[in-house]
Amino acid sequence: MSVFWTFLARIRAIFLGSRLDRDLADELDSHLEMLIKDYQRAGMCLEDATRAARLRLGGIEQTKEEVRDERRVPWIANFFRDVHEALRKWRRQPAVAAVTVLTLAVGVGANIAMYDLVDALMFRPPDGVHAPERVVSVRNAVNYVRYLDIKDRAGTLDLAAYVRATLSLGIGTDAAPICAECVTSSYFSLLGTQPVIGRTFRLDENAERREPGVILSYALWQNQFGGDPRALGRPTTISGRQFSIIGVAPRGFRGLEPESVDTWILLPVAPEICSFTGRSLLGSGGTSAWLRTIGRLRDGVALPQAAAEIAALASPEAQFERALDHNPAPELEPIQESRRDSRAEGLALWLAGGALVVLIIACANVAGLSSIRAIDRRREVAVRLQLGASRARILAQHMAEHLMLSLFSGMAAVVVAGWIAMLLHTFFPYGGEVKLFDLRLFAIASCLALLSGVLSGMVPALQASRIDATALSRVVKAAHPRSGFRSVLLVLQVALALVLVIGAGLFVRSVQNTQSGLGYDLDRVIIAAVDLRKAGYRSEREMRSVVDLLADRVRRLPNIESVSLSSGSLLGTGGSVRVRSIQGIDGKPGEFRPVTAVSPEYFAALGTRIIRGRAFTNADNGTSERAMIVDDALARAMWPDEPAVGKCVFYYGAPTCTRIVGISESRRISANIPGFRGESFIPLAQAGEETVPQLILIRSRTAVSKALPGIAAVIRGALPNLPFVDIRPLEELADAQARSWRLGRTIFSLFGTVALLLASVGLYAVLAFSVRQRVPEIGVRIALGATPGDVLRLVFRHALILVAAGWFLGIGAALIASKYIEKLLFQVTPTDTRTFISSSAILLITGIAGCLIPAVRAARVDPVVALRHE
Amino acid sequence: MPSKTDVLQGTLDLMVLKTLEMLGEMHGYGIARRIEQVSQEVLQLNQGTLYPALVRLEQRRWIKSRWGLSETGRRARFYSLTQAGRKQIEAESENWRRTAAVMARFLEAQ
Known about the structure:
heterodimer; A: alpha+beta; 10-stranded mixed β-sheet; 53% helix; B: alpha+beta; 3-stranded antiparallel β-sheet; globular
């Protein structure tokens, strides 16, 4: 009960402050008077009595202070006072405060951005999906035939399917590529997605409507239609077909995959633009894999139960395939797991770790700076202590200052985080849009900033409060305080910075590697993917002659070195892959292998070398012996001990021998797929009627950017009905594959640079301070005959010891961590010597830069001034 | 476990309360003198420490104060016990006696 009254009284005291002070002053005055009177009565003179009375009463100011402490809620009042004090100090020395705030802001901001990335990649459920934990991906229903097969028979799941395709929106020269999902009518009801306006596909969405419906993504609706609700019902052209807009998906909704989607159309309505099986979704039977099937567990059904049912419903082919698989993956997989890209996740975690390292360095920097400032203020603190302040108050004061720093840096950190997130988005279109003003983000920013600020202020504050006031008078003459704390901090900073720089270096090498050693030239090659079915052609013969015509026209353009055709996809640009079975190799049974039909100039156009034998020529046509070229990896696999040239290969459906005429160098088709695939090629002329080349590969003599428009014009001119022509430099495609390494390179380089900067600032601070403390000593040395060179060497030696210690620590840490980072790199060993050496060199340069100014200042010390230095 | 300062404060608080019980109404100086007298000059208070204690006691409503005139004609504050204060004296005294008894038993134990 008394606690309650106390509290109330204290609140009251906040408001009545000054009046209570006056009252107390009066009270103490009268107390003093009475004391004096008593002493006088005891026989002292006024002067002596006064002195004695004052002694007896004790320090009046101190008493007032203590009473005030009792009165108020002391820590609130003190806190505000400390804050006010801190702000005043900063106004006098804005540079130091600014550096500190900025340092913390960078550290905290980087972490927030990385948290967002990790969250989006690993934890965040897909937007707009109701109860995503009940949604599973059905692994074996990989085409429409199988989907239909199980759809109506499954009792434990609702099913739907989708496939992504790059289509075009609009017509003619205004056509722009969009990413679309072709879905079954059950898709939206399975996901439980509610549209923003309009509606989603109904279960009985009629395929006979004059204009089938399309659903736009929120972003597309905003960008193309300005968010206008009257967009509903408007017609729009997608890949040459007319659709009418029936609804808009909720913000951030992009199906179940991380990359964003622009439109959704109904799969059965437009099979020829959605899948490459052509008009009929049932085409090519049940053997090709192009569709993704998902399911939602019905109420009360558990995953294993549904998985068992699906396994039982699988078609004979599926079951056969499954039996062949040594390590069969589960039939059903919750989508949270199946959509995870383990490489992206691994990278994200490492990036998050890198951000944490930057934060640690930043905190160390701030701690070091604080510690230095605390030493500068030693005298002030000593005076305060003697005036009666408690050590707790000194501590509280330091912490208040750091709290303010945390507040400001928290705000700045959000800005930094937003900037980094935008940078990330150019590499990874993850998680929809940049959510800069997320409440959760603010909360985390504040907590992190608070924590960092408090932690980094803790030790210096404790040090400051431990100052022995009486020893202070001697402290100036004492030897310079070699603070172990600051040195340790600096060594730590240097070590961590080195680790980050090494990481950056490894990723730089990875990116370099993805661009070389591919087995084909990246520059000067342009790929045009033309899917003539979308231009309205139907007969294969017609399509072949059109493509030949195109190739001819392009060949006639100036500065074109060679043009070749291919039936297969290269780096995922499109085109179907024919799968044939190699029946036997000298009697041994064979296996399914993808074969690409190419024109004779193919290898020359791409820059793929023929290691043995020869390339195709015009002589390899329908009448000559069937020829084939395999790549080095395949040749070694099939004939490990003998030369492959001249060997025979047999196909199903071609009874005569197909002779291997040449070996090409192994290519890395996709940087993402480790190892080589083992490719085989046959001449286009021998490929059979149904093979239509879908890629035109062009090698230009000049830079790609100059040649591209001419090529585009030729193709568009020849095919005006083609909704969209995909012409790209090969380099651009390779870049997309190398995305994750490029991301790692950029972010690690960013972190590494920041870390180095911070470390060098830290080094500068420590050295500058040390030099300042040793000015008298240096003065003495110079007076005794030391040259500037000697002084320089003195400072450098100090710096070198610190940097060397950091270097050892950093190398050790990098070696330990190397085992874990191996999976993320591309053809670089984690202990790559060149990287380590160049990183160390960078560190050395940074170290020298950091100690340059203090060293020069030390050398310029004027002994006369120094010896008088107080 | 109450800290050392708390115990010290508690002791002083009790002394002040008891003094007021004996004296009735008194100003700060008077209370200080009385405490010194009762302790037979063993306690030489830093008399200033009295004032935070008085504020504390007043906040808890165990004493109340009013302004009056001191012997010197100066404005001075006079303190007196409240009903709650009297109850507090009883409770605290009981605590002390119990503690002292237990300690005595320990000190005499063989």
